[in-house]
Amino acid sequence: MDKPVNILMVGVGGQGIILASDIISLAAMKAGYDAKKNEIHGMSQRGGSVFSHIRYGKKIYSPTIPEGQTDILVSLEEMETLRWLKYIGKQTRIVYFKNKILPANVQEYPQGIEQAITKACKHVSVIKPEEIKEKISSQKYLNTVLCGFLSNFLDLSNKHWTAAIKEKVPKDTYELNIQAFQLGKKLKT
């Protein structure tokens, strides 16, 4: 692989963006790639914006994705997807949860978000969390479901994913995380 893979994960505090980005980065490293990531989560405890840049390939020199170079923009919240559209290019696939979390001091959630996203990008996958919540024991595993869905687009084997999950999640949640990951692999959007 000559060109690095650039994944931008966004959401709000408490959704598991950091854990999911740790799993992706570690799976890439276990597959033999150079992987780098950076993240911002300063206001995450207050429901603020959280993001993580993940880059992997033969040799990665910077963890930051240049604007327009994102291969996959992953969002666990609709409005957060809009904030990061300047990072997409013609090659970008957007994967986002149809999930609305009202920011502090905002009375009404903005309308037209889905239309703006589909206008900006022709490769969009929408995941409806309410359909998944019925199949997993807790919504805290939605980030692992997302990793499973992303695995369909990345050149990382199942053994690298499961090894990364085992290393990153608490031991008593490993089986539930693997079930969530497998559910994500089977999602059709």
Written account of the structure:
This protein has 189 residues and is of the alpha/beta class. It has a single domain (5-186), classed as Pyruvate-ferredoxin Oxidoreductase, domain 3. The chain is 35% helix and 23% strand. The chain has helices spanning 17-30, 78-83, 113-120, 129-133, 142-150, 158-168, 174-186, and strands at 5-12, 34-40, 49-57, 70-75, 88-97, 124-127. It has a 6-stranded mixed β-sheet, with helices on both faces. A hairpin with an 8-residue loop joins strand 2 and strand 3. It is globular, with a radius of gyration of 16 Å. It starts with a strand and ends with a helix. The model has no long low-confidence stretch (mean pLDDT 90).
Keywords:
about 190 residues; alpha/beta; Pyruvate-ferredoxin Oxidoreductase, domain 3; 7 helices; globular
SSE blueprint:
Layout: E1 5-12, H1 17-30, E2 34-40, E3 49-57, E4 70-75, H2 78-83, E5 88-97, H3 113-120, E6 124-127, H4 129-133, H5 142-150, H6 158-168, H7 174-186
Helix pairs in contact: 1-5, 1-6, 5-7
Structure at a glance:
The chain is an alpha/beta fold and 189 residues long.
Low-confidence stretches: none
Average pLDDT over all residues = 90
Order of helices and strands: EHEEEHEHEHHHH
Beta-strand percent range: 15-25%
Oligomer: single chain
Number of strands: 6
Outline the biggest β-sheet. Answer: 6 strands, mixed
Write down the Rg: 16 Å
H/I helix tally: 7
**Widest beta sheet: strand line-up:** 2-3-1-4-5-6
Which CATH architecture is right?
3-Layer(aba) Sandwich
**How many domain modules?**
1
The CATH superfamily appears as Pyruvate-ferredoxin oxidoreductase, PFOR, domain III
Classify the fold: give the CATH topology: Pyruvate-ferredoxin Oxidoreductase, domain 3
